[in-house]
Structures are given as C-alpha cells and as structure tokens.
Amino acid sequence: MRNGPRGIAYHQSSGGANRKNSGAFISNLVVRLTRNPILKVLSSIRAHRVRALLMGGQACVFYGAAEFSRDTDLAILAHSENLAKLTNALEDLQATVIAVPPFEAKYLRKGHAVHFRCRHPEASGMRIDVMTKMRGVDSFPKLWARRTTLSIDDGTIELMSLPDLVQAKKTQRDKDWPMLRRLIEVNYFANRKRPSREQIRFWFLELRTPDLLIELAALQPRLPLHLRRKRPLLELAVAGNKSLLERALFEEEQREREADRQYWAPLKKELENLRHAQARRGGPSKM
After folding, report:
1. How many whole angstroms separate alpha carbon 247 and alpha carbon 75?
2. Which of 86, 144, 150, 259 has the fewest CB atoms lying closer than 10 Å?
C-alpha cells in the first residue's frame, strides 16, 4: 500500500526548467536555481549514477516551502552496487564521515543516518546526510517509483515525492512541523481551484491548518467514508468546529512525535554505544 498519490500537481510553470513526474502525473515546480554547493553535490550523485532522492530542507526549497537549507539530505538505495557508486561520488566531493555511525550498510538498513562533510572547493562545508529507512515511510523502490524528476539545464534532480516528503517530516523535531504545514499549504493554494482527485485525497489526509481543512470540507462535501475512518478529525472539519479541530490536530501531532521518539530510542542508544567505542579508540569513524 502506497503512502500517497503517485504525483501531486504543483505550481504554475516558470521559465528555465522542465518539470515532469516519473509516474502518470505531472509535477510543475517553481524553481529558483543559483550556483551553489547543492548543485555540485547533485551533479556528482548524478554523474556516478547513484540511486538517490533529494529530501529534507533542500527538497522543501524546490517545492516552494523554504528559501534556504544548509544541508543535503538524501534517501538512498542501500544495495552494495549503489553504495559503491555513492562512495565514488563522495570521493569526488572529498566528503568524509563526521559522526557516528560509520558508513556501513547495516546501519543504514537499521534506520540510521550517516553524516558527511564535503571539502571539494565547489561544495566546501556542505553537509550530506544519507538514509535508507525512515519511520512510516515506504521502502526505497516505492519511493523511487513515485519520485518527481526535475529537469534543469545540465541534468536532472530526483526529488522525493511531495506526499512521501510530508510523511518523512513527521518527526519529534520542532522545526519539522511548521515546514510540513507550509509544504501542504503551498500545494493547496496553488491547486485548489482545479484539483485532481489525488490532490483532494492528499489534502484531506495531510492538511494541518484548521481553516483550510474546514474550507476543503465545504468545497468537497462528498468526503469518502474511508477517509473519515482513516482520519477521524475530518468529522470536525465537516462540522466546521474549529476549536475542537485545532485540539484534534495538536493531539495528532503529539502522537506522531511520541511514535518518532519511541522509534529512535533504540537507535539513539546504539549511537551512544558507538560514540563510547569511538572515544576509546581515540578517533573518528572512517568512511
């Protein structure tokens, strides 16, 4: 079962880039590309044919919900051949591991992120975080099938689809929830006049703004029963009860945060053990 629609139509076109989705739907992104370290990182990933998807803050920039991000977050396929390609790309970027865990498939498959810092002149100081498993997010092959492909002058950028990116943002971190809200709002405002069925479903399941959920319920009164069952707070949107809806959204967020804390508890414990072992060895992990 997939976490969301195969494609979410996005923004009106602007010059300088071609936009497409690898599935049957089109994603039009407003993109403001400048020559910055992220392009060097993505160029190296592309040149070495690494199977990777841009996610995190940089993906939010491309989806119009953020203006700047210092890091490059990638979801990757943790197969040996792909990891070998990633190693080559990291060598090209002069990137080395800067924290635990070490760059090993077993840690990626458990759900850890591996952190690198680039020293290449065109990407100096850029941090790269790679993951292959995330709480509540589908396996990489399914993410890849739903990806958004953005064509630029000198190549393409493979982005995690908007619904998958939203799911990946449901963490315990305070900074992720305002970003998650903006991601969905931008998509809603850009497409609410002529939405697709997939967009309507996505908004009903993911919107976090009470006024917009109430508006959506009024505009789309035939709310399918299965969506009501999947997200019971939609009944409050249909009823137009803003105060109770705000409370229900807050409680929904708290449940996600707690689930994420429980998910990360054993992983954090393992990281602590790795740090202690590293300290005893007297040096950082090698790539």
Report:
1. 33
2. 259
